[in-house]
Give the backbone structure.
Amino acid sequence: MAILVIAEHTHAALAAATLNTVTAAQQIGGDIHVLVAGQGAGAAAEAAAKVAGVTKVLLADNAAYAHGLPENVAPLIVALVQEAGADSYSHILAAATSNGKNILPRVAAALDVDQISEIIAVESADTFKRPIYAGNAIATVQSSASVKVITVRGTGFDAAVAEGGNAVIEALALVTDSGQSVFVSEELAKSDRPELTAAKIVVSGGRGMQNGDNFKHLYALADKLGAGVGASRAAVDAGFVPNDMQVGQTGKIVAPQLYIAVGISGAIQHLAGMKDSRVIVAINKDEEAPIFQVADYGLVADLFDAVPELERAI
Amino acid sequence: MKVLVAVKRVVDFNVKVRVKADHSGVDLANVKMAMNPFCEIAVEEAVRLKEQGIATEVVVVSIGGSAVQEQLRTALALGADRAILVESAEDLTSLAVAKLLKAVVDKEQPQLVILGKQAIDSDNNQTGQMLAALSGYGQGTFASKVEISGDSVAVTREIDGGAQTVSLKLPAIVTTDLRLNEPRYASLPNIMKAKKKPLEVLTPNALGVSCASTVHTLKVQAPAARSAGIKVKSVAELVEKLKNEAKVI
């Protein structure tokens, strides 16, 4: 029995989320195969082969997989499971990224099995913990499915060691191009700052920032700390910053070493996205703000004084 | 073009749920229920397509107990033309829901199916993708823009780090993200009119769908509580604590 991990990657490199997913696979136990489906993704496959614990890398390199279209990638995964025989893959795991969430339910339905979404802990090979109700409850669920299809929340698992492994890379000739969908375009925000879900420190701003221009104070602080910059849904809805910066139930889930919430009141929806951070700092002028109930260190102050002062003091 | 919208009845998003003392689930007794926020966006998008003359009929479907009729009436008041309730008192998995919706798709033959990207109770984010797989249709998930042209639909999707646009052949499945639109409120005259709109009740048996599940919940617990820390008096004290006590900078 082996576990199939669907790699999250940029073709040229393996994404950090893959390493957390490999750790979840290690906790389940069994051989770990990593599927890299992409175009010109040889470098990502080589990186995957070096990850400690990975026994085999399957590389499906074709234009059909260039943009991760689920109509093409899901049938590839289904074919791999079916070709490998009834008992060869016990689990299929993918990171709970926008890509993993897009593709994996399509795989589960095609295999006629239920999916378990966003696990945060492995209890045993068939039992997992996952948050429900925006993290206000944690469910322990057991699966009797022949193939367990699971997405993994990265913040629940440490990253696997990226070096030291020596897995074989097997090129797959199989091309599953459904022709149902066509990639048109992609606009990715360009940033030199670390990606939110991988950053060790995250600085986030809320409605208290008042406008998008004021986020420059957070960028300056973040650059001093080597931090990623996030925002609450209130700040996104008000149009201060783009949606991909949103931390919360409906945005990104982060759990950095240090989370600095600036001008964020602390709605349930936001707390769901950051309350597993190791250390939380809240800066808010309203001392009744709910964010202070989860903060390790609270500073009641005007953020326009405190943030520049903090930047200078570090 | 006929548009099918699937909606779910969930705990109102403003309610902070409590876990039951016996850990069998969350306490839903006497809790305010509402249409899932992402489903409201789905209804709004379908109604706008009708207002633009692109959709000719908007059919709304939900699955659950008879109380779900309340949310279906809400969707009718917002502008849907008729409703279908697949009545089931069981707690269904996303796969079972997708199978029931597939049976409704077979019956209704819509050109476009719009669903919320996830329900805020189970937080699964599966049903739309599963329905797409079972129907053999393309999927445009986490949509922030939907444009129909001829026999295809261009969907702009919210992805990690930005946005992606894909073009799908119709019929297709779309799941909504928050920025797709801002749902309207139902007016009183429309709420009254909605009471007279047709609402058909079906059962899983009548649709020939088995709702068996391979996943069961062993227990539900409250998350580890995070206790409030201390208030610092100054930025200098904060920096000192972060350096020497928390050792994070």
Q: What stands out?
A: Helices of chain B lie at 37-51, 69-78, 94-108, 127-135, 188-194, 204-207, 235-244. The longest strand of chain B covers residues 138-149. The longest helix of chain B spans residues 37-51. Residues 15 and 67 of chain B are 18 Å apart (CA to CA).
